[in-house]
């Protein structure tokens, strides 16, 4: 795996045809691991992405300077001696290189490069506005982790007679770790895991135990606790960095209105108690040119999940009110928002999320729908 990543760096901005395996812009563990493992697997197995290339380049969809914010990604990759010098980031690539490359999307399917995309692996509901080409192969299924879909593809092709030798231990371990984290260790209360997540994770564990000279598997609970601790290790991050750690930005049709939706590995109520939180959110809104900022927090303690949400207006008061009403009244899904009456942070509206199964993936389409309905 490490050798592949080192060698893949030679494709960066090269004249050689290449297929970029691109993760999503939040670059969480699921996105990063899926990009790296699928590119590695396809390169090792000589999968032909089209008539033009057998070269695959995994790309993390963030600027290189933001990699330090992805504490759980750093932690997991470092377990396999993978450092940032072995990885390729979005701002490493020149514009002309992007416009002539082919793409595979993992953990997302809406992108400016959609018309050049040959294949998609995603666990979101399909967006009809994705603008993918007719030849794009879709693997879209509402499982708990996109890594489950990548692992399914890996396992399916590795069991064929044509399969080539590969670094199975690193490959399987990365995918297993991601599935365990994304499904909240198969927690019943979180309800993120599907039967396929259970099945695929079990197969990975079975194969890991059978590998020659295999190490004892870290028990799932210990693995999950270590991953949650790494994700929550924000001791070295400033409040502004925390806002950028896990960020999604939505825009309307002409990009005149942005809504930033940062996610925290802590509750919003904890974040806004920081002495510099107000200044950080103001600076963040200005930096991202965001009319509205929606803060989303999650805290996992003793296997129990808590979620909350904050809605702060900077430039679009009427739209902000409409979004708040939509989120409160939503039934598909029901977020079960409970208003914090005495929270006066930046004149925002703050809520406890009674439905802990609802994530940012459920909030995004609700907000995007209202954004798209804005008069142009």
Itemize the secondary structure elements and their pairings.
Elements: H1 2-8, E1 19-22, H2 29-44, E2 56-59, H3 71-78, H4 95-100, E3 102-106, E4 117-122, E5 137-140, H5 146-158, H6 168-182, H7 195-210, H8 220-232, H9 239-245, E6 247-251, E7 258-264, H10 268-271, H11 277-287, E8 290-301, E9 304-313, H12 317-329, E10 337-339, E11 349-353, H13 360-372
Parallel strand pairs: 1-2, 1-3, 3-4, 4-5, 7-8
Antiparallel strand pairs: 6-7, 8-9, 9-11, 10-11
Helix pairs in contact: 2-5, 2-6, 3-8, 5-6, 5-7, 6-7, 9-11, 12-13
Major sheet strand order:
6-7-8-9-11-10
Give the SSE order as H and E letters.
Answer: HEHEHHEEEHHHHHEEHHEEHEEH
What structural class do helix, strand and pairing data support? alpha/beta
- Using the alpha-carbon principal axes, give the shape: globular
CATH class of the largest domain: Alpha Beta
- The number of helical segments is 13
CATH superfamily of the largest domain: inorganic pyrophosphatase (n-terminal core)
Family: Belongs to the PPase class C family. Prune subfamily.
GO molecular function: exopolyphosphatase activity
Protein name: Protein prune
Pfam family, one: DHHA2
Please supply descriptive tags for the structure shown above.
six-stranded mixed beta sheet; 17% strand; Diaminopimelate Epimerase, Chain A, domain 1; 13 helices; five-stranded parallel beta sheet; exopolyphosphatase activity; DHH_sf; alpha/beta; Protein prune; inorganic pyrophosphatase (n-terminal core); 376 residues; DHHA2_dom_sf; DHHA2; 2 domains; single chain
């Amino acid at each position: 795996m490490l050798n592949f990543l080192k060698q893949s760096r030679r494709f960066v901005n090269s004249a050689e045809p290449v297929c970029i395996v691109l993760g999503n812009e939040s670059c969480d563990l699921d996105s990063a691991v899926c990009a790296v493992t699928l590119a590695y697997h396809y390169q090792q197995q000589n999968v032909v992405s089209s008539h033009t290339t057998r070269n695959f380049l995994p790309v993390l969809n963030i600027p290189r300077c933001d990699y330090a914010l992805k504490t759980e990604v750093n932690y997991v990759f470092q377990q396999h001696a993978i450092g940032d010098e072995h990885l390729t980031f979005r701002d490493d690539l020149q514009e002309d290189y992007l416009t002539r490359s082919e793409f595979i999307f993992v953990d997302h399917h809406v992108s400016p490069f959609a018309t050049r995309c040959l294949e998609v692996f995603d666990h979101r509901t399909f967006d009809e506005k994705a603008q993918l080409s007719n030849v794009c192969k879709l693997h879209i299924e509402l499982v708990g982790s996109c890594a489950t879909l990548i692992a399914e593809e890996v396992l399916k092709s590795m069991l064929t007679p044509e399969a080539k030798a590969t670094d199975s231990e690193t490959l399987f371990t990365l995918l297993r770790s991601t599935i365990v984290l994304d499904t909240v260790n198969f927690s019943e209360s979180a309800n993120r895991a599907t039967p396929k997540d259970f099945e695929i994770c079990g197969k990975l564990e079975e194969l890991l135990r059978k590998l020659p000279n295999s190490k004892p598997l870290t028990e799932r609970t210990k693995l999950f606790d270590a991953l949650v601790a790494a994700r929550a290790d924000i001791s070295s991050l400033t409040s502004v960095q925390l806002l950028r750690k896990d960020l999604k930005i939505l825009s309307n049709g002409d990009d005149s209105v942005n809504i930033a939706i940062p996610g925290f590995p802590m509750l919003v109520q904890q974040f806004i108690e920081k002495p510099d939180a107000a200044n950080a959110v103001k600076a963040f809104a200005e930096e991202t040119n965001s009319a509205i900022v929606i803060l989303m927090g999650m805290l996992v303690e003793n296997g129990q999940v808590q979620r909350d949400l904050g809605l702060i207006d900077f430039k679009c008061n009427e739209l902000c009110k409409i979004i708040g009403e939509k989120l409160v009244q939503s039934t598909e899904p029901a977020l079960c928002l409970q208003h914090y009456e005495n929270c006066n942070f930046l004149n925002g509206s703050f809520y406890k999320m009674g439905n802990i199964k609802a994530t940012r993936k459920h909030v995004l389409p609700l907000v995007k729908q209202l954004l798209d309905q804005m008069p142009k």
